[in-house]
């Protein structure tokens, strides 16, 4: 394996921290659904500490985890439509 491949693999594994607005969206969405961190964690098969870390900006969830959270709380957490309700996504008037 060349050093170029190693450098690329290292860079692809490095991710920036979760943006603060996403942290707030997770917390607000969870609370709006009446869920505790433990409840949300259970619904996405994760530990409650993981949700706490995400909400505090300490954790960097994978896209598949964000997708699960989006479905549970009903709010888009990724992309340009971040913060929009999921049910309005893709509907044309």
From TrEMBL:
Pfam families: HTH_3. GO terms for molecular function: DNA binding. Signal peptide: none annotated. Keywords: DNA-binding. InterPro entries: Cro/C1-type_HTH, Lambda_DNA-bd_dom_sf. One of its GO terms (cellular component) is nucleus. This is Endothelial differentiation-related factor 1 homolog. It comes from Drosophila pseudoobscura pseudoobscura (Fruit fly).
């Amino acid at each position: 394996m060349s050093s170029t491949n190693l450098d690329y693999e290292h860079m692809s594994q490095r991710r920036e921290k979760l943006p603060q607005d996403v942290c707030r969206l997770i917390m607000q969405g969870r609370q709006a659904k009446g869920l505790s961190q433990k409840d949300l964690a259970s619904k996405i098969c994760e530990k409650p500490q993981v949700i706490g870390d995400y909400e505090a900006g300490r954790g960097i969830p994978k896209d598949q985890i964000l997708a699960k959270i989006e479905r549970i709380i009903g709010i888009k957490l990724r992309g340009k439509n971040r913060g929009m309700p999921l049910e309005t996504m893709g509907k044309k008037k």
